[in-house]
């Protein structure tokens, strides 16, 4: 019973959040997220962004210009330039987004991290919801 409850928690939480939002008309913190994905160059960034949009895994993707990066890779300090994608989507889509990007990204271990959106312009958040299909 405990295992089943733990497995059902994400589904039940999602349903409760949808019900709360429908009844109150208010935004529930964490319903949407922003994902950060680093890419090697602008062409790869554009290709991944378009693929994400074609799959309707996001409402909006920013492609930010080159930034310098320092990181450890296989025990060595590396330095590179990268392009950053900022992906706005439903929190419930983060797992699918992450799996899809890993399947098309050229990096061995692509950076895909996300943060929940706590607050924002209610009309913009509603637009994200309308733009990204439910699970």
From TrEMBL:
One of its GO terms (molecular function) is copper ion binding. Gene3D superfamilies: 3.30.70.120. Keywords: Signal. GO terms for biological process: response to metal ion. SUPFAM superfamilies: GlnB-like. Pfam families: CutA1 (PF03091). Residues 1-16 form the signal peptide. Homotrimer. Belongs to the CutA family. This is CUTA protein. It comes from Spizaetus tyrannus.
